Amino acid sequence: MSLEGGARPEGAGESSSADLPALMQLASGFWVSNVLASAVELGVFALLDARPGLTADEVARGLGIAGRGARQLLPACAALGLLAATDGRYRNTTLADRHLVPGRPQYFGGFVRFLHAREYAAWGRLTEALRTDLPTAWDPGDERVTVFAAEDESLRLFWEGAHPLSLACGEALAGALDLSGARALLDVGGGTGACAIGLCRHLPELRATVYELPFVAELARARVAEADMEERITVVDGDFLAADLPAGYDTLLLSSVLHNWDPASVATLLGKCHRALEPGGTVIVTELILDDAGAGPPGAARMGLDMLVWTLGGRSYTESEHRAALAAAGFVEVRAVPLEVMQANLALAGRRR
Q1: Distance of alpha carbon 330 from alpha carbon 348, whole angstroms
Q2: pLDDT at position 224, please?
C-alpha cells in the first residue's frame, strides 16, 4: 500500500513485531482468568490437596470432567504457577495450597468465583457502561435489586474473598502509621472486620467497633469470633449514609470505602466522620489512589473502571481530591503514607482540631 504524497507515520518502516506479544497478552488476558476460575469451580485444588500426585486422567475421573479437557487444563494451571508437574503427575504449588484450597485461613477462591460470576459479565459490557454512565453489574432501574442486596449469594463470595486482602491491609496500616496512642477505633463500612482484626493484633491497647450493613455485620461477627477477638472488637449494624455515626472514638477508619461513592456522598460521609470523632482524633483513609498526572497506577485505574460497572457514582480519586475532601470536612494536618497491599497504595491520615 502506497503512502506517496502523505506524511510518513511515526515508526513506519521499522519492525513492529516485537510489540505484538505485549498486545496479545493484553487482548487474551481473559484466557488466564478463565483458567483460574474453572480450576477453582471444578475443585482441582481441593482434589489435589486430598490426593496429591494424580495424573490428568485421574483428575478427570475424580472431577467428572472430560479427559481431553483435564489434559489441557492442568498444564495451563502449571504454566501459571498454580500446579507443579513431575512425570505427568500434579500437585498444588505453595500459592495454590495457601490460597485456593477451601478452608484455608487465607482462602481466595471465593473471590475468584465472585469475579467470574458477577464481574466477568459486567466487564464484558464495559463499552456500554462508558457510553451510558450506568452500572452493568446490576440493574439500577429495578428497585428490588441493589449492589448491596443481602440476598445475593455472590456477594457473600466477595466478602469471603476480600477478608484476607483487608486483613493484610490492616496489618500493613499498623506498621505504616504510628497508632500507639489510639484506644477506640470506629471502622466505618468495615466489611468482615478484617482491618480491625489486623490492627488489633498489632496494637494491644486498641479496641475497635465495626460499623456495617446488617447482612455484612453478620459475617463480621463470625470472623471476629473466629479470630478470638470478641472482647476487643464489637460489631454494630448501621448504614453510614442514612444515619449519623456512633460517637466517642479517637480514631475513625475508612478502608476502601470512599471509591464506592460520588463526590457529594463522600463529602457527606466525611462530614459525619468529623462530627463523630473526638477533638484531636484521627481519621484514616486507605484507598487505591490515582496519581495527579492521570497515568495510573494500574490498580487504581482498574478500580475506577470497576466502580463504573458497579456503582452509580463511584470512582477512583486522586490524592489531591482526597486531600481537598478531607480539608473541606474540617480535617487538618493531612499526611500520606505509602501502602503496598492489593487494596490500597496510600493511607491518608488527618486530625480533627
Answers
A1: 14
A2: 98
Q: Is 259 a catalytic residue?
A: yes
- One-letter amino acid for residue 305 of the chain: L
State the pLDDT at residue 143.
Answer: 56
Q: What is the pLDDT of residue 83?
A: 98
> What confidence score (pLDDT) does residue 147 get?
56
**What was the pLDDT predicted at 5?**
42
CATH class for domain 161-352? alpha beta
Sign of CA dihedral 100, 101, 106, 108: positive
How do 249-255 and 344-352 pair as beta strands? unpaired
How far is 135 from 213, CA to CA, in rounded Å?
A: 21
Q: Which member of 116, 259, 274, 322 is catalytic?
A: 259
Q: In what order do the strands lie in the sheet with 89-92?
A: 54-55, 89-92, 83-86
Amino acid at 316: S
> Could you tell me which of 211, 206, 220, 219 has the C-alpha nearest to residue 173?
206
Q: For the structural domain made of 29-99, what CATH number should be given?
A: 1.10.10.10
Determine the distance from the C-alpha atom of residue 98 to the mean position of all C-alpha atoms in its chain, rounded to a whole number: 18
pLDDT at 14: 56
The answer to whether residues 348 and 324 touch, using CB atoms and an 8 Å cutoff, is no
Which of 99, 87, 31, 81 shows the shortest CA–CA distance to 56? 87
Among the residues of the chain, which ranges form H helices? 20-27, 29-42, 44-50, 56-63, 67-79, 94-99, 109-114, 120-123, 126-132, 153-176, 194-202, 214-226, 263-276, 298-310, 319-328
Place of cell 490437596: 49
Q: Per residue in 161-201, pLDDT tens?
A: 899 999 999 999 999 999 999 999 999 999 999 999 999 99
Convert the pLDDT of each residue in 138-156 to its tens digit.
888 775 555 565 557 778 8
Beta-strand pair 331-341/344-352: antiparallel
Listed as ranges, residues in the chain with pLDDT below 70 are 1-16, 143-151
Q: Is 37 within 8 Å of 114 (Cβ atoms)?
A: no
What are the φ/ψ torsions at residue 341 (nearest 5 degrees)?
-130, 165
Q: Can you give the residue ranges of every domain in the chain?
A: 29-99, 161-352
Q: Is 9 exposed, middle or buried (0-12, 13-18, 19+ CB in 10 A)?
A: exposed
